[in-house]
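hey so i finally got around to running both of the ones u sent me last week. sorry it took forever, my laptop kept dying halfway thru and i had to restart like 3 times lol. anyway pasting them below in the order u listed, first the sequence line then the structure token line for each. didnt double check formatting much so if smth looks off just lmk and ill redo it

first one:
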Amino acid sequence: MFHWFEQRPFFFAVLVFIFISFAGIIEVIPDFAKQSRPTVGTKPYSVLELAGRHVYIKDSCNACHSQLIRPFKSETDRYGMYSLSGEYAYDRPFLWGSKRTGPDLMRVGNYRTTDWHENHMWDPVAVVPGSIMPAYKHQFDNIADIETAYAEAVTIKKVFNTPYDQDGMPKLGTWEEAKKAALAEAQEIANSMRNEKVKQAVANGEVPEIVALIAYLNSLK
């Protein structure tokens, strides 16, 4: 049999290619699947955080900010631990980014506070002199779409088996229950803010976009 292949180099090359490909698949796929599982401590976004993520995308924050820390000392010294694939298990879509006009935000929740975000989104230059980031004052007036965020959470729970409503994971429940939980979460954030209009809106049962966005940014750790 081997003598036959030695006389036919083309078929011998094809056979070698098949064996190498098969061995590569056996070696790589299991490890890839393991690495893509959620890392310990990674949880799906709450409804409020998901609404904030929608604001983040709508206002094109991902056009200037990445969410991917590469394993280089210069990056880990500045931004923290490099990113792991399992940390993106519940991100749809991924917001890795391809350009850093501003800093990476993968772990911004570890070193920025609610009041810092409030001041920065209102007047970036006052917080970071020389910043070219525009002000996002409309976020203090616009109301976040909590209902759409809830609908997305329910959908990804059913379609992708995202572990909502499990022990130690965010709760969804009914729409009324989710809305109540989102308002309670928003109230905690509003308590740390100075803007009276935002505080009043939350007290009236509405969630300004800035509150949802801050909830999302605070979750990035």
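and the second one:
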Amino acid sequence: MRSDVVKRGVERAPHRSLFYALGCSASDWDKPFIGVINSYNRIVPGHMHLESVSRAVHEGIRAGGGVPFEVNTIAVCDGIAMNHPGMKYSLPSRELIADSAEIAAQAHAFDALVFICSCDKIVPGMLMAAVRMNVPAIFVAGGPMMAGHIWVDNEERTVDLSSLFEAVGKTVRGDMSEEQLEMITRAACPGCGSCSGMFTANTMNCMTEALGMALPGNGTIPGTKSERLDLAYRSGLQIMEVLRRDIRPRDIITRNSIENAFAVDMALGGSTNSVLHVTA
């Protein structure tokens, strides 16, 4: 196993001692070490629930006979960063995410990796890291956000971030009151998940599935549904099978799979930012 360099032999006694500090037992030395690269934080709605997704992944890894170790990367919410100088930091964060994931995985000699991501620059950043390292890997997204609901003239209407963008324009033109805008603002983003709409995040998560790097449903199961945790658990199990069969990202991500992913993107009416990210 790749991880033998940090756990086998007399000279690795200091390494093992540090792993004991983490709660490992002697029986863990015979098991694969699986890195869980998580992008959980409390500033990005698409990432605020990734702790629970990660717990399910951990359970799947342990059930499959592996030992999970979690590390974290940063994540930028493009929705919060846009329309001010903060947006200049969004795309560079992709490279930082790729580099930090690679550093953590290589420094600790993980045998395989589970990437937990959701939003715009995080998914491609982690994909870049996976392909560069070419260590067995699987992706798990946090899932899309559900749409919100408002009542207008005794009629229920569905609203989302696209509805809010349109409402801003109507308010600026004087076609909508600020009170109506506030009603939509409060309802458009009702909870966790990547922004409801075929923006970059949901597009890239669907494309990751189409590329073959995630299980079916990765791009479409809402973040609030219990099926999302089931997917995370099964992904933890699946990475053990991927490792056993020694399937690497470069075995999966080929010219054909990339062309297939772009076809899926076009069929879904997804974001054209996919060109910027997949070609990277």
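quick thing i noticed on the 2nd:
The chain has a mean pLDDT of 96.
anyway thats it, ttyl
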